[in-house]
């Protein structure tokens, strides 16, 4: 598995880094959501919840807007 991942990274370093980074961000969002849910409902301004939602929104915008634009300009 590691050898295959290393070969993929050598062949496509940007795509592999984006995919591994996405897995890491998804994992952090999942763990963050579980941690915040276990702490109860937001109190006051709820900055931790806002940070989690903002991180998720940036992640979604990155994959739905920026990556397709990059691919369009890369292959045009």
What's this, in brief?
With 76 residues, the chain is an all-alpha fold. The protein contains 3 helices and no strands.
What descriptive keywords fit this protein?
76 residues, 84% helix, single chain, flat, mainly alpha
Protein architecture, described:
- It is a single chain.
- The protein has 3 helices and no strands.
- The protein is mainly α.
- The model has no long low-confidence stretch (mean pLDDT 87).
Shape: flat
Helix percentage = over 70%
**Poorly predicted segments:** none
Largest β-sheet summary: none
Strand fraction band?
under 5%
Distance between the termini: 33 Å
SSE order, one letter for each helix or strand: HHH
Q: Compute the CA-based radius of gyration.
A: 17 Å
Class from helix and strand fractions:
mainly alpha
Tally of contiguous helical segments: 3
What topology emerges from the helices and strands here?
Layout: H1 2-11, H2 13-38, H3 47-74
Helix pairs in contact: 1-2, 2-3
